[in-house]
Write a structure and sequence with these properties.
Radius of gyration: 18 Å
Strand order of the largest sheet: 6-5-4-7-10-13-14
Bound molecules: 5-S-methyl-1-O-phosphono-5-thio-D-ribulose
Largest sheet: 7 strands, mixed
Order of helices and strands: HEEEHHHHHEHHEHEHEEEHEEEEEH
Helix content: 25-40%
Strand content: 15-25%
Number of strands: 14
Length: about 325
């Protein structure tokens, strides 16, 4: 794959020959660019669980392709949907994508969904870039780039567009403990794009903010409740508290496939608990993979429709 642009189908695609779902194995990045072939729903479920593909919109797209695979193989579709939905509970995109596929579980429908999701990313990046002033030093958490959305990216897509407009000076990349989506994936993407960046330990964010070196925090989301409370990678909430303390805006950039109006507030968002062994194999550990940032700590939520401000119960309700 080398240095050429990462195309949507490099990240995840459906191949009739097999049939199979093929994805870039994100566990191996940045050291190796290796594809993983999934020939059954069970294999896609494993790939999602093990984070070979991750990021809310990207797992939605993978689930759509998995359902097309199930249909082509004559697998039980209800069972396939149940297994896919259960693979990771926090990102609502999984449920959303499978709902979109319900009446037409064809590869063509899955490909259209994938293409539209990338289109939404491009549209929201245009809106989000309006929030950037000249010389912005932005801090981002986890990976909300092309890898996480199946193309272009949400938060990192916004950074790309701001960079192209000459507004972005640099990006601080939280390494994102414990699985290092920031230092492995976001840094890899920014490097390929030629966007100046530096990886920081998650715990360095506070002192950089205090030193006046951060102008805004930009993240993606896994699920946005009707009132604007937002679940995203563990550590986002602490960043939001820090940003509020320092008077720095935190922007959430996410497509409407991530907005869950059926869940009134963050209290109703299921938070995935992952294996303790991802933290330590020596001692007992707790490993919540996500946290919820209360809406009042979010300066704006950007979707493909534009920039939404508080009260989010009103500005988001208008989306559907
Ligand atoms: O556990 P991950 O890597 O799937 O978590 C991903 C995130 O938290 C992303 O920030 C989120 O999905 C938004 S991606 C556009």
């Amino acid at each position: 794959m080398g240095r050429r642009n990462l195309e949507a189908e490099d990240i995840v695609r459906y191949e009739e020959d097999g049939p199979k779902v093929v994805l870039l194995d994100q566990r191996r990045l940045p050291d190796e660019e290796v594809e993983l072939e999934c020939r059954s729903v069970a294999e896609v479920v494993d790939a999602i669980r093990e984070l070979a593909i991750r990021g809310a919109p990207a797992i939605g797209v993978a689930a759509a392709y998995a359902l097309a695979l199930a249909a082509a193989r004559g697998e039980d579709l209800d069972e396939a949907v149940a297994r896919l939905v259960a693979s990771r509970p926090t990102a609502v995109n999984l449920v959303w994508a499978l709902e979109q596929m319900r009446n037409d579980p064809s590869p063509a429908n899955a490909r259209a969904l994938h293409q539209e999701e990338v289109g939404r990313c491009r549209a929201m990046a245009q809106h989000a870039a309006e929030l950037f002033g000249q010389g912005t030093r932005a801090l981002t958490h986890c990976n909300a780039g092309a890898l996480a959305t199946g193309g272009y990216g949400s938060a990192v897509g916004a950074l790309h567009t701001a960079w192209e407009r000459g507004l972005l000076e640099r990006v601080w990349v939280d390494e994102t403990r414990p699985l290092l989506q920031g230092s492995r994936l976001t840094a890899w993407e920014l490097e390929r794009a030629g966007i100046p960046h530096a990886v920081i330990a998650d715990s360095a964010a506070a002192s950089l903010m205090a030193a006046g070196e951060v102008d805004c925090v930009v993240t993606g989301a896994d699920r946005i409740a009707a009132n604007g409370d937002t679940a995203n990678k563990i550590g986002t909430y602490s960043l939001a508290v820090l940003a509020a303390h320092h008077g720095i805006p935190l922007y959430v950039v996410a497509p409407t496939s991530t907005v869950d109006l059926a869940t009134p507030s963050g209290a109703g968002i299921p938070i995935e608990e992952r294996a303790a062994s991802e933290i330590t194999t020596s001692f007992a550990a707790r490993n919540p993979a996500f946290d919820v940032t209360p809406a009042d700590l979010i300066a704006a939520i950007v979707t493909e429709h534009g920039v939404h401000r508080a009260p989010y119960a009103q500005s988001l309700a208008a989306l559907v």
